[in-house]
Structure formats: structure tokens, C-alpha cells
Design brief:
heterodimer, A: alpha+beta, Uridine Diphospho-n-acetylenolpyruvylglucosamine Reductase, domain 2, Enolase-like, domain 1, 3 domains, 5-stranded antiparallel β-sheet, 12 strands, 23% strand, B: alpha+beta, Aldehyde Oxidoreductase, domain 4, 7-stranded mixed β-sheet, 5-stranded mixed β-sheet, 28% helix, 22% strand, globular, binds flavin-adenine dinucleotide
Chain lengths: 261, 788
């Protein structure tokens, strides 16, 4: 780790001000950022911890919308969303291990947009919106490819608003070493239709499988997607699976998510 | 009735009190006054010519004490290799110099180029980053077959080849084996890879060097399985420090699995730097350094042929293996694919003709050396896989084909040099059939099928050779060390006992089990016995702990020393009771005169030895302390039979282990619970190899699986509950305790059971074209195999 300054503001406004400084970076739960610092792969001059901002923590439900504060830990989501949005709670409850879940935050996960992360699938499938210190961004506009998002420099995710679907489930097939998603599929059915979001698989990061969405809109049963094949082109190929394998798993996990929804 | 003390009692491990309450004393817990810290600058390319190392800017950075480079070590020796293998044509192996810090070339990612000593670790690391290194990249040698092809780049230019040795075992058998194969009714051939593993001990390596300028004595605290061996190798071959001026201490060590046997550059650097700077110098590995500096394991590519007659009797075995040595020869690397592998190719079976060929190859990868099992897992895997394949091809039940070929008369001379003293392979197989409930398999299979899962059953046998010995034989085979063990038993005046053993416990539980043996021999409580190890200033000499040798060899030395103590104490007791020595019996901590009610306590005898007022001073020296060395007459040969049941998800290829049973013959057992623990850990490691672990290099020699994000370690929920049994015991015939060793069995016996089970599941599930899948059987690989 290189030396850095550290501050722990109490409000979003203070955090925004601190992040305007040179080489400042937000620190959520640190579950991605701290290992990066330890490996000396990043050298921020100032870390602005968001952990002291009470307004960014917590899960609340009102009028069919579940709102999660940007600094809410995965463990808190697993508890707080269990009644209103069990599919989201289950997803949060299977991220990493207890230490990761009690530190890592939804804001950190979405800002990082790891192509194998779980939350992006839920946000995209549920048609959620990402609330920041300066605007509200629709999920369809937020994710911009591997590790890339619509966030501007110094922009803080303060909350995520999920319209609660009628039926939903997340099916995660774990990468054996990291236990991130080798392929994870979140399926959400609402009055507006069916959305299917896939994480882990594509070189472009989380994406919507529109072919499956159409099939499921007509017939929301696992059988409806059994014949479909996601294209292997553009899928990730690495130690843990070829593009063909990932494409195959997209179909399998979609059917399983539908069965569980 | 289970015993509650002495040999055979499942008493809790006394060392766990400190381990589980954070009071262990590991090397990293040692911080000496005035200590400086080391950070290594390591090569980030696999192969390159070192054109310049400019340390000027780095040396001027805050806190920097000194920067060492390869030049500083030009005058001292390289890290030595402890075993010389002689090849088929009588040629001794190629043995390149292994410099402490790279000189001339860098040969693997992680090869140390410079060592920065600074006041703090962070300062040392900052300065290491500021060193300007000029490396001319060269093509990396990664694939073993390509390394042997003409025109390949050379890891060591001066050798003129990447071939370390070409070994035939036994060369004189080659023609007979070829003839038997040519004439056989059936030959089964299998090509397989024994996947490269990274040891991943929980405790990373640490070295603290210290120098006392007043006495001229150097001390090295290090994470080692064998401090005496490190003292000898580093003192005599690298730094030129005589043993009486060099002390090596290996305190609590958090796992080794072989990787902490070897002498590493960082140990020599810290010892050297402490003397050069006249202050203590400490290095603690980062986990990412462990991945690219701890010696890796396995990495064999093998073709095995098994010839059978019409009835499935084995006629001949021929194997041909490429064994990766990595960039340099690690301490015992050459012995692993040869004498720890070829000698095991007979397995539990009477195959009359066997020939093993091994070509050891240098590559631009981390050195490869012994890792839990060391050569024996590689032998067992190929043998038990090819037997399974042959059984399937010939339509013979996998239990039956093994039974038809079991060695059933002992001693048995194998065609690969070793002679098994004892065993009962039918009995362990009988036991396995029961504890694994093979009869219930079909019912379980149907239940899995109802869930859409393919269930398979895999089983295998294994034989292990522990306590590699005797010294005169291993000397003929190229070992540059003896393989005995020593112990000193010191009895104090009030009867308490301290045993100083050359064995080293780094998770095995010696402090408990060795104490049980001594307590049992004398008939006193375990609490009166203390086991001390891990310091060259204590035990007279020690070859250390590896190869499941501690109880069989170290325990035997201890028993010998204790017998000397008892024999002297009996003389003292005879004197005290004015009886003939021959009439004295020792039982329950009392010396009695046979046939009378006269007795004297252990404690009273000990006191007499140290307060010799009433004592036969004319015949006996005072005091009660004895040392013994023990050099075994032979290896010990534990053996067993393992069964694994898996469920394969046909949609994803994911393998789940549902049941695992192990029937082992370890001879006599000192502490059944400790033995269970050793077997559990070994099976976990074997399942890790079979399903999860794999060190992967890309074509440029970059380690792709260099963190836990990509290197899959087994976790608790990857493993089933095991059924283990070691009641089929045929005691070893040539050591005093009749013990065989149990440390590696699980890791040796489990990988073939897992793979055999997956192949069985696929066959039963209609994927008959799948005859083999290389480990680890990741979901992706199993799925790809099913696709055809
Ligand atoms: C062992 C392990 C296993 C894991 N397994 C999984 C898994 O299975 N699935 C999964 O999805 N993830 C997994 N993770 C990742 C985990 O979910 C992290 O918590 C998450 O990716 C980052 O969240 P964080 O709060 O820790 O962010 P940090 O590490 O603190 O920050 C990450 C990045 O986000 C920025 N940032 C943080 N908070 C905000 C904010 N509110 N607004 C804007 N920018 C912000 C930081 O500046 C930084 O760039 C795992 C991590 C570990 C260590």
C-alpha cells in the first residue's frame, strides 16, 4: 500500500466536497479497493470513506419501490429485503463470505461494475435506477461495459431504487476459485414485461438477453427458454470456462431462474 | 473400551490450546531489537537476460539500509540440490547453479533480482520499485514437450539442453516389458496430466536472520519442516558457516505440505544480510509472493500402458513421463519423479514386468518439488486410472479386477526395487466394501437420477512408501543425505521428561502423540512428558518431517533412547531395592521386584540418578539422559482402499462429492483421532487436486492462477463427511512401534477415486465416449467432455 490521506465525512455534501480534491477516491466497504491498494495497483492521495454517512444506509419499501442506500452492506440487504424482494435478498446473501457481506456495499459493487459481480444483474433485470448525489440514472443507461459505468468523476451512488417485480429469481453458477458469478442470470417479471439480465458471461459486462425476454413474455416457464441458445461470440473465455460453455450456461441458468421465480 | 491415555488413546492435541487461542509462536511473531526489513524485487518476466540493475536512486530513498544484488552473491555457493539422479545412459543429471539472487538471467516470474533492506517493510518496498532493471526478454520455455524439441530456447544456456535427466527404471527390464506388452491379450493405454499444484500453506514463509558479532554466531528463524537440514545446506553449501556457528530455529509452523522442506533463497539472504549489516533482518512473504516462490508440486505428463491376460491379470506396465523441474533444481526435486514415483508403480498388485521412463525438464516456471505425497500420488493416479479403464474395456468389475491382482503373500519383492514387508489388501478392500455401503449404491443412483443427476462410484487402492530409507540404499540412489532420525530423552531429577526430537511438527500433533508413546512406555501420565523440536540447539540432529516419516523414523529413535533410559533406570532400581537387575519389572510407573511386593517409584529412581547418595557410582554414571539415532531397515508400506460417490449435473458439468470412504492400514495407531485428522486433511487436499486446483502458466510464462481469485482451494462445502477406518492393521515388521505413517495417504488415495467416480457417472449417464478427463474436473471440463 502507498501512503494516503483519509477522511470520513458525515454527509453526502461533505463527501462530494472531499471527492473534488485531487486524487481523491471514494471508499465503500473496501472489499475491492483495499486489495487493489495492497497490491499497489492504485495510489489515491485521499480516501473518502462513505461509511459514516447515515443517510446512505438502510433498506426501505414504499409504494412498490424498494430503496437501498448506496452504503448499505450486502448483509443488511440480505436481511432488509427478505420480505419485500426475496430474490434480491438471496442474491446479496450469496455474495462472497460473511466478512465480505458485512463490509461490501451495493454502491461499491455497482460503481466497480465487475463483469462477474451479482448486483448489476439485479439492477438491470429489475429496471432499477441508480440515484447519485446529482441525478438518477436508469439501469439501461448505467452499465457501460466491463468496469465502466455512467458515473462521472467524484459522483457518489447514494441509493438504488428497485421497482419490486411480481416474480423474480437469481440463478448463480459460481466460478470455482473466486465464487463470483461464472454466469449469473436474474429474471424479473413485472406488469411491464419480463427482463432477463446476465452477468459473468460477456466481455461487455452485464447485458439483457432480449431473445429470452421475448420468449418468457409469451410463456413464463423454463420450457420456454430450453430451445434458445445465447451466442458464444463476445462471451468471456478464461481458465474457468470457454465462451461456448458460458453461452450454454446462460440458457441453463435462465431456465433455473425462471423455475425458481 | 477406548483408552484414555497412552498408545491407542484419542486424547486431544495439547498444542491446539495455543494454536486455537492465538498463542502460537510463529516465525512472523519473532521481532528482534533493531530489526530491518527486506523486500525483494522479483522478475515479472519468465525468461530474460539481465543487462543491468541500477540501484542508485533506490539506495538514496528514505530508510534504505542496503540493497543486495546477484553480484553480492557471486562469491558464495548456489542453493544446493540434495539428490543426484543418474540417467539411463549412466549420465548424471544436469545440475545448473541456482544463485541466491538472479545473475546473468532471470528464469521464472518471481525469480529474485534484488533485495532491499530498509528500516520498514514499506520503505523497502518503495525502494524496490525504484530499482531500474534492464531485462532483455527471451522466449519463455513453458511446455515440456516443446522444451525438449530441437531449437527450443534454453533455460540454462550452458547446459545446451532443457533435459535434466532421462531415467529408466529398471533399464534392464525394458526389453522384457516390451515383449510382455507385445504378446498380451489386451493392452490399455492412457494419456494423462497430473496437474501442477501450489502448496498454499496457511502460514506464508518467513525468515529472520540474526548475527551476534561478539560470538560470531548466526541464527536463522525460519518456517521450515527441517531446521537441521537447512543448517547443513545453507551453512555448508551456500554461506560457508560451520554448524557450531549457525543455529536454525523453526518454531510453530503453520503447515508445509512439503513446501517448507526446501532451502530457499530468502533464508540465505536474511542470514547473509544480518551478518553483513550486523543487525537482524526479516522477510515475510506476501501471499502473492508465495504463489511464485514456494516450490510447486506434481506437474507430470504421462502415458501409461497396462497389459493384461484374458482373465484380467496384469502382465506388464510401461510408463513414460515428462516431469517438470521448473527453472532450477529445488532441494529434493530430482528424487520425486524417480525414486518416490517409479518405486511405487507396482501399487498393490503383483505385476511381473514394470518399466518406468521419466524425462525431467527445465522450464521457465517456479521450481517443482515434493508436495504431500511427492511422486506417490502421481504413481497411484496413473495406475488406478488405467486399471479402471482396463476393467471397463474388458467388462470386469473394478473391485474384482483389483482383487484378482492383489499381492497376497508377504514379504513381496516388487519388480521396481522395493520389497513390501506386510499388508493385507483383501482385508482393506473388504472393509471398504462395508463402510462405503457399496451394496446400497444402486438405490442411491436411482434417487440421484430422479433428481436429474448422474451418480457414479469410483474406487481405487493405493500403496505408500513412508520413511524413505535406509541411508546406505538411498545413498546408492543419489541422496546426498542420510535418512535417519535422532532423539534425546532427558529425564529431570523429579521424573519429568523432555524429549528433543529431530522430527518437526507443523500441524501433525507430535507434541501429543510422541508424549503418548513415552508415557505408555514408562507408565506415567502424558503431562509428565514434554516434546521439544524445531531448534538445532536442542535435538542432536534432525532430518525433519516429510514423507510420513515422523513416527516411523523419529518415533523409533525416541523409543530407542527411551529404552536406554529404562534400562539404566532398571539398574538404579535394582540397586535401590538390592535385587538382581533381571528381576526388575517396569509397570505403571513403578519398578517392582518380580514375585515380591517390593517396588520403587519412577520418580524415586530419577531422583537417585541426580542425587546419587545411594547409587552404584562404580558402575553407573549419574544422570538420566540418552540419545539415539535410528536408521530404518526399510520403508514402511501403508496401504488402503478408497471409494468415492459423486453426482454430476449433466446440464452444467458440476461435480458434487456425496460420499467418501477410506479404509487404511497404517499398522499400529498411537492416537486414532490424530490419524483421522491426518486422513481428513489428506483427502481434502486430494479432492482439491481432483476437482479444483491447477497452476496455469500462459505461453509467456505468466502465472494465470496467481491469486485465490483464479486458484481454487477446496473449501469446507466442497467436501463431504468422510467415513474413515484404520482397523485393518498389519503392523510394520521392522520398527519398534509397528507403525507405518499416515500423513500423505489421503492425498495419494483420493484423486483417482474421484476421477474414477466421475467417469463412472458419465458412463452410466450415456456418455460412454468419455474415458478420461484431466484434473481438475472443473464443471467446464466435465461439460466439454460430455459434448464429445
Ligand atoms: C472474497 C470476495 C468475494 C466476493 N464475492 C463476490 C460475489 O460473489 N459477487 C459479487 O458481486 N461481488 C463479490 N465480491 C465483491 C464485493 O461485493 C465488493 O464488496 C464490491 O465489489 C465492492 O463494494 P465495496 O463497498 O467493498 O467497494 P470498495 O471496494 O470500497 O470500492 C470499489 C469501487 O467503488 C467505488 N465506490 C465505493 N462506494 C461507492 C459509492 N457509493 N459511489 C460511488 N463509488 C463508490 C470506489 O471508489 C472503488 O472504485 C467479493 C469480494 C471479495 C473480497
Amino acid at each position: 500500500m502507498y501512503a494516503f490521506e483519509f477522511t470520513r465525512p458525515k454527509t453526502v455534501a461533505e463527501a462530494v466536497a472531499a471527492l473534488a480534491g485531487e486524487d481523491a477516491q471514494a471508499l465503500g466497504g473496501g472489499q475491492t479497493l483495499i486489495p487493489t491498494l495492497k497490491q499497489r495497483l492504485a495510489s489515491p492521495g485521499m480516501l473518502v470513506s462513505l461509511a459514516g454517512i447515515a443517510a446512505m444506509r438502510g433498506v426501505s419499501v414504499a409504494g412498490g419501490t424498494l430503496t437501498v442506500g448506496g452504503g448499505t452492506t450486502h448483509a443488511a440487504v440480505a436481511r432488509g429485503a427478505a420480505a419485500a424482494f426475496p430474490a434480491l435478498a438471496a442474491l446479496a446473501g450469496r455474495i462472497g463470505d460473511p466478512a465480505v457481506r458485512n463490509r461490501g456495499t451495493i454502491g461499491g459493487s455497482l460503481a466497480n461494475n465487475d463483469p462477474s459481480a451479482c448486483y448489476p444483474a439485479a439492477v438491470l433485470a429489475a429496471g432499477a435506477s441508480v440515484v447519485t448525489d446529482r441525478r438518477e440514472i436508469a439501469a439501461d443507461d448505467f452499465f457501460r461495459g466491463m468496469f465502466a459505468t455512467a458515473l462521472e468523476a467524484g459522483e457518489i451512488i447514494t441509493a438504488v431504487r428497485f421497482p419490486v417485480p411480481q416474480r423474480a429469481a437469481y440463478a448463480k453458477f459460481v466460478q470455482p476459485a473466486s465464487r463470483f458469478a461464472l454466469v449469473g442470470v436474474f429474471v424479473a417479471k413485472s406488469a411491464a414485461g419480463v427482463r432477463v439480465a446476465v452477468t459473468g458471461a460477456s466481455e461487455g459486462g452485464v447485458f439483457r438477453w432480449t431473445q429470452a425476454e421475448a420468449a418468457l413474455a409469451a410463456d413464463f416457464r423454463p420450457e420456454a427458454v430450453r430451445g434458445l441458445r445465447a451466442a458464444a461470440a463476445g462471451m468471456i473465455g478464461d481458465l474457468h470456462g470457454s465462451p461456448e460453455y458460458r453461452a450454454h450456461l446462460v440458457g441453463v441458468m435462465t431456465a433455473r431462474a425462471v423455475a425458481a421465480a | 473400551m477406548p483408552k484414555d491415555s497412552g498408545i491407542g488413546a484419542s486424547i486431544k492435541r495439547r498444542e491446539d490450546v495455543r494454536f486455537l487461542t492465538g498463542r502460537g509462536r510463529y516465525t512472523d511473531d519473532i521481532n528482534l531489537r533493531g530489526q530491518a526489513h527486506v523486500a525483494f524485487l522479483r522478475s515479472n518476466v519468465a525468461h530474460g537476460r539481465l543487462r543491468g540493475v541500477d540501484t542508485a536512486a533506490a539506495a538514496a530513498m528514505p530508510g534504505v539500509v542496503r540493497i543486495f544484488t546477484g553480484e553480492d552473491f557471486a562469491a558464495v555457493g548456489g542453493l544446493p540440490c540434495g539428490w543426484q539422479v543418474t540417467g539411463r545412459d549412466g549420465q548424471v543429471m544436469k545440475e545448473p547453479k541456482h544463485p541466491v539472487l538472479a545473475h546473468g538471467k532471470v528464469r521464472h516470474v518471481g525469480d529474485p533480482i534484488a533485495a532491499v533492506v530498509a528500516e520498514t517493510y514499506e520503505q523497502a518496498r518503495d525502494a524496490a520499485e525504484a530499482i531500474a532493471v534492464d531485462i532483455e526478454s527471451l522466449p519463455a520455455v513453458v511446455d515440456m514437450a516443446a522444451a525438449l524439441a530441437p531449437g527450443s530456447a534454453l533455460v540454462h544456456d550452458d547446459l545446451g539442453t532443457n533435459l535434466c535427466y532421462d531415467w529408466g527404471f529398471i533399464e534392464d527390464s525394458k526389453a522384457a516389458v516390451a515383449a510382455a506388452i507385445a504378446a498380451a491379450h489386451h493392452v490399455t493405454t492412457l494419456d494423462l496430466v497430473n496437474n501442477r499444484l501450489i502448496p498454499n500453506a496457511m502460514e506464508p514463509r518467513v525468515a529472520v536472520g540474526d548475527y551476534n558479532s561478539a560470538s560470531g554466531e548466526s541464527t536463522l528463524y525460519t518456517t521450515s519442516q527441517n531446521p537441521h537440514v537447512i543448517r547443513l545446506l545453507m551453512g555448508a553449501f551456500v554461506l560457508g558457516i560451520p554448524e557450531h556457528k549457525l543455529r536454525v530455529v523453526a518454531p510453530d509452523v503453520g503447515g508445509g505440505f512439503g513446501s517448507k522442506i526446501f532451502h530457499y533463497a530468502e533464508e540465505a539472504l536474511c542470514t547473509f544480510a544480518a551478518r553483513a549489516l550486523n543487525r537482524p533482518v526479516k522477510w515475510t512473504a506476501q501471499r502473492s509472493e508465495s504463489f511464485v516462490t514456494d516450490a510447486h508440486g506434481r506437474d507430470h505428463v504421462t502415458r501409461i500402458e497396462l497389459a493384461l491376460d484374458r482373465d484380467g491379470h496384469f502382465l506388464a506396465i510401461r510408463t513414460s513421463t515428462l516431469a517438470n523441474m521448473g527453472a532450477y533444481l529445488s532441494t529434493f526435486a530430482p528424487s520425486v519423479p524417480t525414486y518416490l514415483h517409479g518405486t511405487l508403480m507396482a501399487g498393490n498388485y503383483k505385476t511381473p514386468h514394470i518399466y518406468v521412463n521419466v524425462k525431467a525438464v527445465f522450464t521457465n516456471t517456479v521450481p517443482v518439488d515434493a508436495y504431500r505425497g511427492a511422486g506417490r500420488p502421481e504413481a497411484t493416479f496413473q495406475l488406478e486410472r488405467v486399471i479402471d479403464k482396463a476393467a471397463r474395456e474388458m467388462g470386469i468389475d473394478p473391485v474384482e479386477i483389483r482383487r484378482r491382482n492383489f499381492v497376497d503373500a508377504f514379504p513381496y519383492q516388487t519388480p521396481v526395487a522395493v520389497a513390501y514387508d506386510t499388508g493385507n489388501y483383501h482385508a482393506t478392500m473388504d472393509k471398504l466394501v462395508t463402510i462405503a455401503d457399496l451394496a446400497g449404491f444402486e438405490k442411491r443412483r436411482a434417487a440421484s437420477a430422479a433428481k436429474g443427476l448422474l451418480r457414479g462410484l469410483g474406487l481405487n487402492c493405493y500403496i505408500e512408501a513412508c520413511g524413505i530409507a535406509p541411508s546406505h540404499l538411498v545413498g546408492q540412489l543419489g541422496a546426498r543425505a542420510g535418512l535417519y532420525e535422532s532423539a534425546t530423552v532427558r529425564v529431570n531429577a523429579t521424573g519429568g521428561i523432555v524429549v528433543m526430537t529431530g522430527s518437526h511438527s507443523h500441524g501433525q500433533g507430535h507434541e501429543t502423540t510422541f508424549a503418548q508413546v513415552i508415557a505408555d512406555m514408562i507408565g506415567i501420565p502424558e503431562a509428565q512428558v514434554e516434546i521439544v523440536h524445531g531448534d538445532t540447539a536442542n535435538a542432536p540432529m534432525g532430518m525433519g518431517t516429510y514423507g510420513s516419516r515422523s513416527l516411523a523414523v523419529g518415533g523409533s529413535a525416541m523409543v530407542r533412547a527411551a529404552n536406554k533410559i529404562i534400562s539404566k533406570a532398571r539398574k538404579i532400581a535394582a540397586h535401590l531395592m538390592e535385587a538382581a537387575e533381571g528381576d526388575i519389572e517396569l509397570k505403571d510407573g513403578k519398578f517392582r521386584v518380580a514375585g515380591t511386593d517390593k517396588s520403587v517409584d519412577w520418580g524415586a529412581v530419577c531422583l537417585a540418578a541426580y542425587v546419587p547418595h545411594n547409587y552404584p557410582l562404580a558402575e553407573l554414571e549419574p544422570g538420566l539422559e540418552e540419545t539415539a539415532f535410528y536408521d530404518p531397515a526399510n520403508f514402511t508400506f501403508p496401504a488402503g482402499a478408497y471409494a468415492c460417490e459423486v453426482e454430476v449435473d449433466p446440464e452444467t458439468g458440476r461435480v458434487t462429492i456425496d460420499r467418501f470412504a477410506a479404509a487404511d492400514d497404517f499398522g499400529n495407531i498411537v492416537n486414532p483421532m490424530v490419524v483421522d485428522g491426518q486422513v481428513h486433511g489428506g483427502i481434502g487436499q486430494g479432492i482439491g487436486q481432483a476437482l479444483l486446483e491447477r497452476a496455469v502458466y500462459d505461453a509467456n510464462g505468466q502465472l494465470l492462477s496467481g491469486t485465490y481469485m483464479d486458484y481454487a482451494m477446496p473449501r469446507a462445502d466442497d467436501l463431504p463427511s468422510y467415513v474413515v477406518d484404520h482397523s485393518c492393521a498389519t503392523p510394520c515388521t521392522h520398527n519398534p512401534l509397528g507403525v507405518k505413517g499416515c500423513g500423505e495417504a489421503g492425498a495419494i488415495g483420493s484423486p483417482p477415486a474421484v476421477v474414477n467416480a466421475v467417469i463412472d457417472a458419465l458412463h452410466r449417464g450415456g456418455h460412454a465416449h468419455v474415458t478420461h478427463i484431466d484434473m481438475p474436473l472443473s464443471p467446464a471440463r466435465v461439460w466439454a467432455a460430455m459434448q464429445g
